[in-house]
Design brief:
seven-stranded mixed β-sheet, single chain, 14 strands, alpha/beta
Length: 371
């Protein structure tokens, strides 16, 4: 396996006419893994693309029109892949640079797959997990990492170690399966595997994990947060970032761009503290939702796959969204208070999210898990 890793690095190096500098202890490198909220679902503005420091870099984990596998690029969003959106990693890097010495640089290796379970990043479980994936969009995302995101992470991290120091790992995953202690054990194994395979000192490489959209934002996966918050028990190198006050999108599953900015800032605060930096101002900015109207929706599904919902007020429309954050279809309700949908129209989607828009401006979302 070690020979294969070196061959991979050599192949990428030949494709990239960028000379490798000597290792720089002021080049802080962070590994970023997870599912859709790590991928990022926030809208990217023109300012987001322009206001990026030359000291904030991303080592491309895939090929694209604006990136090349194994090549450093200025961390202009989107970071994960060319067809993704704004993520917490964007503001994490910016906040790190605001607090690190001026001579410091920050590099990120950003590998994430929408809707995936934690087993995708387990080197011993990945192959079986990939073999059981049904959704075409998820298969496509995993294929971009040669069907082994963990191996791609290690390969790139080994390359990055030639230039800088790996200082930490960011994880945002759990909406799919962080509901019992088995998830905790799996995360700890993945962390230990990364530390071992990269010959890192765990005392110097903290893991920062983040909560799913919280109850204060009506998060449909907020019930994962108690498990996520137990992750640091007996795990001194781990801290958890609260999502409280981080604004959620209308699906109540993903954050808005502002929500990612605040979440990324909190990741940076936790990372800086874990690395021994004293921060004079790390107040938590609470972003309150703009939507103050309310709507209540109850729903059921019958044996034939027909989804029925009843709202307590007139509906404007309903979005049917995949677990990757992609809107599959939008249905206009024209003021009706009931909604019916045949879920068999999307047989390959194991999870669907229905986002209800009331005529009073309120939104509500319901998750349907078909497995």
């Amino acid at each position: 396996m070690k020979i294969l890793k070196k061959l991979f690095a050599a192949t990428v190096m030949m494709a990239c006419p960028v000379s490798m500098a000597a290792q720089d202890e002021n080049f802080y490198i962070f590994l970023c893994i997870g599912q859709s909220n790590m991928v990022g679902q926030g809208e990217i503005t023109k300012a987001d693309k322009q206001d990026v420091s030359d000291r904030f870099l991303s080592l491309s984990a895939v090929n694209g029109k604006d990136r090349k596998l194994g090549q450093w690029r200025k961390a202009i969003p989107p970071l994960c892949r060319e067809d993704t959106k704004y993520s917490l990693v964007d503001y994490f890097g910016r906040t790190m640079l605001e607090n690190l010495p001026e001579k410091a640089r920050v590099g990120v290796i950003h590998i994430a797959v929408d809707g995936c379970g934690i087993d995708l990043f387990d080197k011993d479980r990945c192959r079986q997990y990939v073999a059981n994936v049904k959704e075409d969009w998820m298969k496509k995302e995993i294929a971009a990492y040669d069907n082994n995101p963990y191996q791609r992470l290690i390969q790139l991290a080994e390359m990055a170690q030639e230039e800088g120091d790996i200082r930490g790992i960011l994880l945002h995953q759990g909406e799919t399966d962080a509901y019992n202690d088995e998830w905790i054990r799996k995360v700890k194994k993945i962390y230990n595997d990364i530390i071992h395979d990269l010959d890192l000192d765990p005392v110097k490489v903290p893991l920062i994990a983040g909560e799913a959209v919280g109850e204060d934002q009506n998060g449909i996966c907020a019930h994962a947060n108690p498990t996520i918050n137990r992750l640091p028990i007996g795990f001194q190198q781990c801290s958890v970032v609260s999502s409280k006050g981080c604004q959620a999108g209308p699906d109540h599953l993903h954050f808005t761009a502002d929500g990612y900015r605040e979440l990324g800032r909190r990741y940076a605060v936790k990372m800086l503290q874990a690395l021994g930096y004293e921060l004079t101002d790390h107040r938590v900015q609470v972003i309150m939702p703009n939507n103050v109207a309310t709507i209540d929706v109850s729903a059921s599904i019958d044996d034939s796959g027909i989804f029925f919902a009843q709202a307590d007020g007139p509906l404007e429309k309903v979005d049917v969204v995949s677990y990757s954050g992609q809107t599959l279809t939008t249905i206009n309700c024209n003021g009706k208070e009931t909604f019916t949908f045949n879920t068999l129209e999307y047989p390959d989607e194991s999870k669907l999210v229905f986002v209800f828009y009331g005529q009073n401006g309120a939104t509500e979302s319901l998750e349907l898990n078909r497995r």
